[in-house]
Amino acid sequence: MNKRIVFLLLAVISPLLCTAAHSQNIGAYLIPRQIYVGDQAVMILPLPSTTQDSVDIVLTDFSYDFPFHPDIDFHKITLQRRISGSRLTIEFAAFVPGFLEFPVIEIGGYRFTGLNVTVNSLVDRQSSIELSGLASSLAMPGTGLMIYGAMAGLIIFILLSIWFILKGRLFLSKWNEKWKYWKLFISMKLTEKRLHRSILKEGDKRIILDELSDKFRIFLSYLTGSNCRSMTAREFKNFTLNLPENVDLKSSYFHNFFSKCDELRFSGAEVNSQDILRLLADLRFFLGVLAKTGRKKPEATEEKRPAV
Predict the structure, then answer these.
(1) Are strands 299-302 and 239-242 parallel, antiparallel or unpaired?
(2) Which of 105-109, 157-161, 280-284, 297-301 comes out lowest in average pLDDT?
(3) Is the four-CA dihedral 244, 249, 255, 259 of positive or negative sign?
């Protein structure tokens, strides 16, 4: 009878002895080794190996037997059982400094007690931090480049301002003059093409002649600087342009052109389309002559006009 009582006592005490083997955090270590209030940390407790690998047991907030501590926020507890070595992993964050003891953790048939951790105060960490002295402004990366770049930009701006005061206005004036010339030159070429298409489509010949005379006189007014719109065909007899020597343009070109144009406009007779096409061909020839001069605007000369 006594032997049976002893056997029963040993049977009851043996599990308690096994549990006691996990009641101390001997061999447990923290990651990071030193933690402060609010830090995310992991405690790892190595355990004896098992006879075969088993599926990991994980406790989360939704688990029934998930531990609770008023000053510790547990995130996840994992029991890994491996042949090479088992371990218990506790992920947590503490919010009170000092020595804190974990509550009892029951997982996978094991019961872990006596696990504890020391949490340091944030005040201690901040007091150990010392600020370095102020760095020189030139020692900061890119500061020198920014300063010298700004100085170079300022010098370039001053030089450009001086150049603009001395020669810039004259340069802009010449450039603007060339731009106006070529803008009007292109407009004249487009007008010639449009009128040519209008003749081929049997457009109104009187309107075509009026527009041809008016547009050409406006273009010549820009070249000469005088009002060519008020000039008669007779006055164009003494009108010439200073063109390069390699450009062949008869001195009577403008007189003949406007004489023929006015004759067709005011004769009252039926206008032949071929006569207008010849005038457009003469205009196209003149524009080709101007194109040979390049971007240089030709100067106009005019002898004394005879009295009308």
Answers:
(1) antiparallel
(2) 297-301
(3) negative
